[in-house]
């Protein structure tokens, strides 16, 4: 069913010449959409062709996430009442439920080798972090905090998990090992620090923070040193994402609804989108050549694609109904 993803592995940066679009004919994007009356999971070729509906259920299916090998799609569904984690296996065209607890299970992230999934759940009355095998077996609790641990992100080396914890009264960035031990608090301020994202080499974490009375993008070394503010506008910036080579950070600015990129040292801030409306939910292709994103510039929330420097913008979806959270299919190592 799926077309094999082929990429050139040529990384380019803001302002450089884009590569040709031949890779768009062989890559794929997963997303969720309300085009048929309720929210379902779909995937399509990265040129907008060959749209395939993955789920067909009257419930809400959302937040699809590719496994690192590109053969599985984990997603959230409330088809049995609570929000649970399901998995769609591409090569056998089958869907399985992984969690069955009396609570919501959200914020999933794959281990780099695809063998495990970390997620947050309130099954015990509080929002804590859990891990399980990719088939749903061996579910175990990593944190035990009555004030909420959220947004887990597996490190690229697979040996640590970054997350947000409210245990000190507001959201701070922590890291821990895979047993839920050796927790280290990386940020320390009176406002919320959210959305941690590891750099590809695991040396840094980018995140958003409300510490200056608006949401800004920050970066910090994984050992808690070298914290730096990257965005300085008087508005809010969210949704930070790294380029595959770690040389660029992309984010969404609320004040004008545009997507920007900046170096991890804070230099070379560049606006990539130039359109009315909101441009967000960005995803960078594994080869670093393309950005998929969501925009309501044409009065409906649709998925678009552009090259890494903001040129060659193309609309991929054209059916009325919200299309959200596009994610490129990974290139297996």
Automatic annotation (TrEMBL):
TM region(s), chain numbering:
none
Question: What is this protein called in UniProt?
Answer: DUF5050 domain-containing protein
Give the organism's phylogenetic lineage.
Answer: unclassified sequences, metagenomes, ecological metagenomes
Stored PANTHER family: PROTEIN TOLB, PROTEIN TOLB HOMOLOG
What InterPro entries would the database entry show? 6-blade_b-propeller_TolB-like, WD40
Similarity comment text for this entry: Belongs to the TolB family.
């Amino acid at each position: 069913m799926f077309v094999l993803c082929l990429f050139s592995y040529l990384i380019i940066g803001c302002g450089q010449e884009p590569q040709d679009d031949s890779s768009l004919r062989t890559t794929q994007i997963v997303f969720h959409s309300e085009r048929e009356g309720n929210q379902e999971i779909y995937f399509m070729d990265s040129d907008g062709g060959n749209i395939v509906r993955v789920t067909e259920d009257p419930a809400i299916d959302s937040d699809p996430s590719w496994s690192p090998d590109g053969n599985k799609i984990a997603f959230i569904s409330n088809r049995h009442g609570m929000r649970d984690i399901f998995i769609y296996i591409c090569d056998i065209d089958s869907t399985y439920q992984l969690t069955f607890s009396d609570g919501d299970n959200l914020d999933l992230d794959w281990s780099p080798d695809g063998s495990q999934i970390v997620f947050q759940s309130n099954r015990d009355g509080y929002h804590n972090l859990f891990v399980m095998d990719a088939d749903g077996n061996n579910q175990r609790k990593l944190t035990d905090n009555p004030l909420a641990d959220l947004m887990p992100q597996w490190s690229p080396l697979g040996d640590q998990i970054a997350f947000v914890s409210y245990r000190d009264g507001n959201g701070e960035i922590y890291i821990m090992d895979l047993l839920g031990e050796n927790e280290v608090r990386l940020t320390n301020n009176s406002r919320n620090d959210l959305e941690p994202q590891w750099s590809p080499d695991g040396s840094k974490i980018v995140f958003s923070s409300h510490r200056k009375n608006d949401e800004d993008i920050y970066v910090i070394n994984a050992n808690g040193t070298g914290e730096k503010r990257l965005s300085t506008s008087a508005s809010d910036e969210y949704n930070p994402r790294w380029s595959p080579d770690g040389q660029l950070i992309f984010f969404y600015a609320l004040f004008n609804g545009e997507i920007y990129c900046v170096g991890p040292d804070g230099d070379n801030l560049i606006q990539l989108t130039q359109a009315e409306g909101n441009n967000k939910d960005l995803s960078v292709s594994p080869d670093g050549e393309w950005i998929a994103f969501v925009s309501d510039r044409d009065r409906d929330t649709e998925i678009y694609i552009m090259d890494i420097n903001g040129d060659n913008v193309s609309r991929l979806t054209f059916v009325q109904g919200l299309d959200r959270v596009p994610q490129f299919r990974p290139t297996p190592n």
